[in-house]
């Protein structure tokens, strides 16, 4: 008989026993309940296994997606892609480096610079016209443009410029502009009534109390300034071109004039750069006042000889005045005529000629052209010998006084001089004065007397 054990006390019992003989436990009821529970568990497991097998072997049909849903999905994907792509593009395009590149391009061309520029100075107007000098400067100064770009990348600033954030692009990307600190310049002149100009734009007029003007604001760049005025009837102008890169610059724009005295032979006509100014009077001087100073100011004289003009050498006025100031020499301008003897040299020449003749010197003829063959020399020499041989004349002498020198024909000099003849006799003293129109010419480095000319008695006195 098949054995089993009591589930309550573990006593060995025979199969089919209803109650345990040891403890009285209802074994039959226990086995029945256990069998019912096992049956239910088997049914559940079978059901789950069948369902799992059905799921594994059969596909459940899906509901097809509508056209509208498909379009919505596609549009959504495209929008996301565009947004991501647009952001990445904007991030690159609106980067500080890219914005700086566009500013540099505008600086070195005729492009629209104003849209990239701003300023903290309320007096300055930002527009393309006002920024043209800045572009002109950088177009002609390529090295400065390279320094500008390098400094901006490294430090964000360069001279009067600074890279400054000014709002945002698309509410996302920082917007940078070129912040400009403008320059101011002070213009100076030296006469009241002078007008200041920037280009062709009149800025102000100088007065006796104020001969300067502060101009600006200007964007850094290349500018042209002018001063205009009428001084002593002369219309004058001065101009200057400057690269303004900082404030505080001063530009001296005087209308420079010169005043000077010309010395020459009376009757000489005065020319300044071939413009006739006037004629030298009996004083031998001509005054020039407030003429516009120019480096090429040249003066020359013209003297009429037998209705023919004889011209002097030219003299550079500014050079002469500068040398006179530097060396402390007389500033009067005396144009020289080629071959014309000076008055002092003429005085010495004629004095020596008459004294040598008076003394019957062996070299008396040296003062005359052609020496002993000169007619006037021989007449003077013979006259002097006659005076010396005259027994009634105890002593005699000559006093020479050169009155004037002027240019003559063919490079010679016309020398107007007087000679006083002094005669001492036994019972009287006679003084005679004669005038001579002498002619002198150049002989190498020396001067010689061509002729004494006909003598004209000026006076005679007997004492």
Q: Describe it for me?
A:
The chain is α+β, with helices and mostly antiparallel strands and 463 residues long. The chain has helices spanning 27-57, 67-93, 96-107, 128-140, 142-155, 317-327, 343-358, 375-389; strands spanning 3-5, 12-14, 117-119, 157-158, 161-169, 173-180, 183-188, 195-198, 201-205, 212-218, 221-231, 234-244, 249-252, 257-263, 269-272, 275-279, 285-292, 298-305, 308-311, 315-316, 393-407, 413-425, 429-443, 446-451, 456-462. The strands form 7 sheets. Strands 15, 16, 18, 19 and 20 form a 5-stranded antiparallel β-sheet that branches. Strands 21, 22, 23, 24 and 25 form a 5-stranded antiparallel β-sheet that branches. Helix 3 packs antiparallel against helix 5 (142-155). The longest helix has 31 residues, at 27-57.
